[in-house]
Amino acid sequence: MSAVIILAVIVALGLLLALSMCVVNQYVRGVHFRLGRIIGVREPGVALAVPIVDRLTKVSTRIVTMPIQSQIAQTTLSPRADPEKRKME
Fold it and tell me: Which of 19, 36, 57, 81 has the smallest count of CB within 10 Å of its CB?
């Protein structure tokens, strides 16, 4: 009977440890929340968090570029100067 209890405790602790481990990848930071409040920032690697109380949110730190349309430049010489329509003189 006691062997079954010890085995159940070991399995429960192993399951708790497996659920508490999170992997934070490179170019990502983990924001560690405990009950909705920030308690720290986790660097890349393995991070531990209590399964029910803590939440680890991953935030990407990569630069995101977005294409934009070309814009018309406005100068003091003319009200509208479009660089594509301008001729070299």
Answer: 36
